Amino acid sequence: MHAVATEVRERVSKAYAQMDEIDGISNLSREEKQHKRCEVADHAIWEFEVSKTLVRAREAARYDGSPAMLKALEEAETAWERAMNKIAERAGRPKAPGGTRSGALISGRI
Question: Which of 11, 33, 51, 107 could form a disulfide bond with 88, CB atoms 3.0-4.6 angstroms apart?
């Protein structure tokens, strides 16, 4: 389960960094930045979808079968989904003033 959490953090951080870099390009229009952020989000979400990490965690939980392991799996699946939603939301919205980011909401792009 630790691998799931680590992968989630790494993928979200990588996508956010790429989108921050796009936002810093001054010669791109707002629409071009939006398009490039969406491309980054699509790729990051695709990487989540083809990753074997969550599949392995599910297999481990099925093999173990303990209530604690099943609860950990449920939390991991929730974090996985939340991470994809966070990336999609970030792609659809420019950075807020002061560099803060808003919370994760399901954006409809997924």
Answer: 107
